[in-house]
Amino acid sequence: MTATDSGLEPLDPIYVADVLSRPPFVQISGVCNVRDLGSYPTATPNVITKPGYAYRGAEVSNIREEGIQQMKALGITTVFDLRSDPEMEKYSTPIPVIEGVQILRTPVFTDEDYSPESMAKKFELYASGTTEAFTKLYSQILDHGGRAFGTILRHVRDRPNSPFLFHCTAGKDRTGIIAAILLNLAGVDDHLICQDYSLTRIGREPDREKVLRRLSKEPLFAANTELALRMLTSRYETMHATLGLFRDKYGGVEAYVKIFCGLIDDDISIIRANLVVPAKARM
User: Fold this and answer.
1) I want to staple 148 with a disulfide (CB 3.0 to 4.6 A). Which of 106, 135, 201, 243 is the partner?
2) pLDDT tens digits, residue range 48-98?
3) Domain 25-274 has CATH 3.30.830.10
């Protein structure tokens, strides 16, 4: 993937397979775009984010039996599903039952308007593909997502030895926001947070055709694949602008999690400590 990649053209399958075979990507069969938020350097010398603890991904509705075994091998005991009920119904992607794994419904949008008119407006923003449009959409996620994100942050606070995975539908937008919050609290540099976000461009590639088929049922995208592809972009500069949004609108990530997630300074200190390990540590 080059700096000039528009996000609209298919990526070379050999390149994609190679990247997906290496960290931070991990394999859970039937689940797309899964990666480990561990092993990133932090602002503290010789301290990295804890490997094998926090995972991000796309929807787990189509996980295969092999994927269940891979998930268990990773030690994942809790899955946070950030999707809303209407989208699960719309795409026929219910929450699966996985023995030994607790899947918690943690919707970002609990009372969002899913009327055709409301969704058309949202899709138009996504389809524009501009950084400004994504920033507006991500501000909506932040305004609504405090309870959901707080649930995940409290897991980190209270269960530092219980690996978990969080996901939305694509593992890009809602997932990308809480991933950025976790990495920021851990002390990861903005540049690396933006790079992590941009990896979704590669992580989603195997599901490219499936997603386009799904979006083709929406009136806005039915006759225009390019608009659908713009919606799927995950550009570095989008997350860079979003981190600026955290600072300009919410007073920073720490202020956001205090106001919107109901956390206090002691919680944040514990969460930060639970997200990192000495660089020599091997989980």
Assistant:
1) 106
2) 999 999 999 999 999 999 999 999 999 999 999 999 988 898 888 989 999
3) no
Tell me how far apart the 2 most distant CA atoms of the chain are, in Å: 53
Partner residues linked to 1 by β-bridges: none
Tokens standing for residue 86: 């209407």
Q: Would you say 183 and 196 are in contact if contact means Cβ atoms under 8 Å apart?
A: yes
Gap between the Cα atoms of 50 and 188, Å rounded: 12
pTM assigned to the model: 0.94
CA distance 175 to 80: 10
- Confidence at residue 2, expressed as pLDDT on a 0 to 100 scale: 42
| Angle formed at CA 42 by CA 41 and CA 48, multiple of 5 degrees | 55
Spatial separation of the C-alpha atoms in residues 281 and 258, rounded to whole Å: 30
Give the residue extent of every domain in the chain: 25-274
Q: How confident is the model over 205-250, as pLDDT tens digits?
A: 999 888 878 877 777 777 777 877 788 889 999 999 999 999 999 9
Return the closest-CA partner of residue 174 out of 94, 242, 127: 242
